[in-house]
Amino acid sequence: MGRVLRPIVMTTYNDCVAQIQQMLQSTVAKGEVVGEDVDLIEELGLASLDVMEVIEQLEDVFDISFPINELGDVRTISDLARRVQQLTDR
Amino acid sequence: MSLLEKLEAAQRSQDVLQALGVHAIGATIDVAGSATEGEIAGNRVVLAGTNNYLGLTFDPECVDAAVNAVRSHGTGTTGSRLANGTYGCHASLEQELSDFLDARSAIVFTTGYVANVGTISTLAGPGDVIVLDADSHASIYEGAKLSGAEVYRFRHNDPEDLAKRLRRLGERASRTLVIAEGLYSMLGDVSPLKEICEVKDRYGAYLLLDDAHSFGTMGTNGRGLAEDQGCEDQVDFITGTFSKSLGSVGGYCASRRHDINPLRAQIRAYMFTASSTPSVIASTRAALKLIGKRPELRTRLWNNAKRVHSALSQLGFTLGADASPVIATIMDSPQQAADAWQMLLDAGVYVNLVVPPGAPKNLSILRCSLSAAHSAEQIDSIISAYSLVAEHLLSRPKAAAGGSL
C-alpha cells in the first residue's frame, strides 16, 4: 500500500485578507469593507492596542504566533495578510 | 516626520494628562519625612503609592548602615563592576542574596531596570525565542528587543495560551526563554506561576521570573511568589529590585538551577555602567536581614492590604484583583480617574494615577500600594479619602457591592 495522502488545506493570501476585513467590520459602517491598502492606524484610526487585538484573533484562527518584533512593519491589511499567510506556511 | 516632530507626537500622551488638569505624572514629593508621610504641593499627605511595602526606607538599622558606609567607603565607586567598582560589600550582598534565595549564584545590578534589560538581552540572542507575558514591565520588553531574539507575547496570566505558543515553536522551544512576573504592579494580580512552570517544563523551555513586587511581600520567608506557590526549584532565573521591599535602589538576578557567574563578562549593562554606591548596598544588606528577622512586617502589610481592599470593595469600587499589596481601583474614564486622584490628594492621600496608553487593557486606574509601616490611623485616612471619591464620583450607588475585573 502506498502512503495515504492527506489533503493539504492551504491558507491563501485572500483568505487572510477576508478574515481581517471581517474582524474590522465593527470599525466601519455596515456594508463597507476596509480596503487592503488602508493604513490601519493613520487612516482607519485604530490604536496600536486595537491592532494587537486583531493580531491575537488571527493567531487563534490560524494557529500561528506573530512575532512582536515585526509589529512595526504592519501598516495595512495587505502587510498583515501577507505575513499571516507566510506564518501558516511554516 | 522629522526627528523632533516624532518626539512631539510622543509628547501628546503627556498632554492628555495635562488636559485632565492634574499633575499626577512625576508629581514632586517635596519632603519625604517618613516611609508613609510626605509633602506634595504644600500638602501633608499619607504616601500610598510608593511601593515601600515593608516601610524600611527610614528603618534605623538601614539608615545607620547607609550612614556608616558612606563615612567609611565614600559617596560612590566611580567605576563599573568589571573595572574598579566591585567592593567587598557588593560581593557580600551577592552572597547574602544567594543564601536567602538558596541560589547557586546571584549578580547585583545598579537598578532593577538594568537587571532585566541586561539579563534578558544576554540570556537570549539572535536565533533564540522569547515568549513574554503581555503585561510585562517596560524593562522586560526592552531587554527582549535588545536581545535580537524572536519575541512573542502570551495572553496575560494565561498558561494555556503560553502552552499553545510553545507547541507552535516545536523544537525551538528548547531555545526559548519564557518571562513572567510575580505580582503585577498595575492591577495587583498574581501570576499562576506553578502552572507556568509546568508548561515550560513540558516543552523544555526556560523561565525567567521578575519578582520585583513579590520579593519580601510573599512566601513564608519573604522569598517571593515562587516560594508562595511552591515552585522555586522550577524557576530558572529570578530578577528583582531593591527599590520596593528593600527600600533602596538596585537590582539582581539569581538562579537555583544554573551558575550565572559567566554572565558577568557578557552583560553589557553590568560591564559598562557604574556600580551601586556603598551606602545603597549597605542599607540593602541591612533590609535583607530584616526581611528574614521580622516576618511580622509581612503580616502587617497584608493586614493593611486586606483592610483597604475590603473597604474599597464595600464602597462600590471595581477592583483590579484580589487583595494584595497593590490595590487598583478601575475608574470609568481618564477624566474621572484624574478627578479622583486630585480629590484623594486634596484629602491628604497620595496614590498613583495610571491612564491610557500607560495602563493595561486601556484602563484608567488609581493605584494604591500599601506598606507595613502604615499605622491603623493612616489606613483609616486612606479609606476615608476613598469614601469621598465614592460619594462624589462613583456612578454606582454607595451601598452596591464592588465588583472585580
Summarize this structure briefly.
The complex is a heterodimer of chains A (90) and B (405). Chain A is built from three helices and no strands. Chain A is mainly α.
> Largest interface, with Cβ-Cβ < 8 Å?
A-B, 11 and 12 residues
Net shape of chain B: globular
Would you state the CATH class of chain A?
Mainly Alpha
What is the count of DSSP helices of chain A, taking H or I runs of 4+ residues?
3
Structural class of chain B: alpha/beta
Judged by helices, strands and strand pairing, the structural class of chain A is: mainly alpha
Number of helices of chain B: 13
Give structural attributes.
heterodimer, A: 90 residues, mainly alpha, Non-ribosomal Peptide Synthetase Peptidyl Carrier Protein, Chain A, 43% helix, B: 405 residues, alpha/beta, Aspartate Aminotransferase, domain 1, 13 helices, 15 strands
Q: Please, could you describe this protein's structure?
A:
By secondary structure, chain A is mainly α. Chain A has a single domain (13-89), classed as Non-ribosomal Peptide Synthetase Peptidyl Carrier Protein, Chain A. Chain A is 43% helix and 0% strand. Chain A has helices at residues 13-23, 48-62, 77-89. In chain A, helix 1 crosses helix 3 (77-89). The radius of gyration of chain A is 15 Å and the shape is globular. Chain A starts with 12 loop residues before the first helix and ends with a helix. Chain B is an alpha/beta fold and 405 residues long. Chain B folds into 2 domains: 16-47 and 295-393, Aspartate Aminotransferase, domain 1 (Alpha-Beta Complex); 60-293, Aspartate Aminotransferase, domain 2. Helices cover 40% and strands 17% of the residues of chain B. Chain B has helices at 3-19, 60-73, 88-101, 112-123, 138-147, 159-169, 193-203, 225-228, 268-271, 278-293, 296-314, 334-346, 376-393; strands spanning 29-32, 37-40, 43-47, 105-109, 129-133, 150-154, 176-181, 206-210, 237-241, 251-255, 318-319, 326-331, 349-350, 352-354, 364-369. Chain B has a 7-stranded mixed β-sheet, with helices on both faces. A 4-stranded mixed β-sheet of chain B has the order 1-2-3-13. In chain B, strand 8, helix 8 (225-228) and strand 9 (237-241) form a beta-alpha-beta unit. In chain B, helix 2 (60-73) runs antiparallel to helix 10 (278-293) and helix 4 runs parallel beside helix 5. Chain B is globular, with a radius of gyration of 21 Å. The relative contact order of chain B is 0.16. The interface between A and B is small, with 11 and 12 residues.
